[in-house]
Amino acid sequence: MKPARALWLLTYLLFSAGIARGEMAISDKEATIKADHLSVDTPTDSYHAEGNVHISQQGASLLADSVIYHRLTGDAVAEGDVRLERGGDTMNGKKLLLNLVTQHGELLSGELFVKKSNFRLRADRLMKTGDADYRVERGTFTTCDGDHPSWRFEASRVDVTLDEYATAKNAVFYVGDVPLFYTPYLVFPANTDRQSGLMIPKLGFSSKRGFYIDQPYYWAINPSQEATFDLDLETSRGVGTGVEYRYLRPHGSQGYLHAFGIYDTNEHEFRGEVQQRHLEILTPELTLASTIHMISDRRYYLDYGEFSGEYNRQLLESTVSFDRRWDRYGLSGDLRYTQDLEAATNDATLQRLPTLSFIAAGDMIGPLLFSMDSGLSNFTRDVGATGQRLVVHPRVAYYAKPGGTLDFSLYGGYQQRLYNARGDSPDPGWRQIGQADGGATLSLPLERIYDGTTRHLLIPELQYVYVERRSDRDLPFFDYDDRVLGQNIAYLSLSNTFTRKYVREGMPDEYRDILYLKLTQGYQFSGERRDLLTLVDEGNKLTDLMLESVVSPMQNLSLLLDGRYNLDDNAISTANIGLELKGEGKKEVARLSYRHSRDELDYLDAGVVFPLGTRFTADLEGRYSFDRGAFLGSRYALEYRQQCWSVVLAYSDRVRSHQVNGEQQFTINFSLAGLGSLGPMRTM
Description:
Elements: E1 32-34, E2 37-41, E3 46-57, E4 60-70, E5 75-86, E6 89-99, E7 105-114, E8 119-128, E9 133-142, E10 151-161, E11 165-175, E12 178-189, E13 197-198, E14 202-206, E15 210-222, E16 225-234, E17 238-248, E18 254-264, E19 269-283, E20 286-295, H1 300-304, H2 308-311, E21 315-325, E22 329-340, E23 351-365, E24 368-380, E25 385-400, E26 407-423, E27 429-443, E28 446-450, E29 454-467, E30 487-502, E31 510-527, E32 545-554, E33 557-566, E34 571-582, E35 588-597, E36 601-612, E37 616-625, E38 630-641, E39 645-654, E40 663-672
Antiparallel strand pairs: 1-3, 2-3, 3-4, 4-5, 5-6, 6-7, 7-8, 8-9, 9-10, 10-11, 11-12, 13-15, 14-15, 14-40, 15-16, 16-17, 17-18, 18-19, 19-20, 20-21, 21-22, 22-23, 23-24, 24-25, 25-26, 26-27, 27-29, 28-29, 29-30, 30-31, 31-32, 32-33, 33-34, 34-35, 35-36, 36-37, 37-38, 38-39, 39-40
């Protein structure tokens, strides 16, 4: 009999549009069937298709050697190289029995493959228990390709809900054919989207913490909330627990909470930290924010800090604030609590509870622009002077463009400070001081275009700054804002900016600054100078020659320079150099930074990530102190990556200093592709 090709209308045959999510249901849409031979058995009201059977509907396809469909019961039987697919998701097996009404059935000697996560579930008998629900008895699952995957789980029972999660009982983890560990129960994501489940544990050894294992569990609460819970087992310190909670709210509001606690068996006390951030955008003009950061004791980061920015911290600040904005005015306030990590106690640490600020951005009064900064602070502490400070600083400014080419600005103001000191202040009671200030700026922007692609902007600028000198030694000293230095200084600067236009076919042109260079020199006629950036300021009439530069010859390469040269001593005061190279996805490939401040700092910080063949990647970073002649810290990591898994081996060495004990640490982190991916959140 010759092969026949026909189109048949079947009302109750195939699968719904959700088959990409593993759903199979009766459809009232048209379906087509193609086969070498088609027939209808009228007594049983069934359809028979044999030879290269291809049934399709709304992008879903069923391929098999033969298919029998019973219209009255909704039962379908497909045999011989069965393949059910939609959107790249497939089920393959020898035989498929499925009721299109109940969505229950089973696939014999089959595999379920989810393209998005490369998830593969194999079993002799794969049962379909719902639209997107599956169950197997004695099955295996992996995200690796091939008949002999690099890793797999074998379990006595696996329940899967596609696009959500999977659970396994009596699961054994295999690398190749070698079993590594057993767990009686396992929950893991069944997709690359945000799914709840256990994540891969972090293993390591530290000279301070001993052997440790950190087991995280990720909870995708809903599309706008997620949390990660950690169980941290340390042989030298005890058992710790941690939580990270993140959430998004409408209109850009968001927040974050991190907490960790451990009963330190080495110190015989409870230790931990809490970090919290929240931004609440009530209206476009009114926002509330909080940033809380507290630790249990001053030595916490010396024992538990993982980065140099943590274990050598000096202060922690916590704030709760609000900000209200109008067109030309702004009102803000905050409560600020500071935790001094270097002092023996926090009794003498100054707290600002609260601070209020009002800013008038500018109102035109004839040709003059009026503005004002004002603030009220309440200072409190257990030991030392306390009190309040009110600052009102009005200004008037004048802007002009002489000759249509020059830019000229002139301003003048008066800062009034009023104090009410109490406590241990040497001279309590009401005190006040006022200081006049002013200045002017004159600049000439010059511009030229080269070849229609490169713009050079040259701006010579002359600036003058004046602050009245007043004696304020008898006033309370809460912070450096209470010691306003008198100044009478002029600056001459020359800045250059080169901007290049890049023509992109089918896209808007891109403009990028490839070079910024500014030289500044100042002359002090009288008064005092406090240069916090230099650290060493000898108060010469001629200020340091200051250089600022950013060079970006390529989109992912940038060089930053910031240096100061003392002409009187013919010596470098400060030198800060930073080089950064990024690769695909803006990931950092290499960085190099050098910081020098005469008689204070002199160190080099560097890091580089580079491939070693096709499977290995090395990650090296370190900080070297030239004045000490030794490394302050270093880290060496090696990653081995396969198609469906990777492992990172890392060793770090933190050098002992006068306040920080040295620490050596070794960690090993496994990553199984497709399992434990957090994914993005979205606002509900």
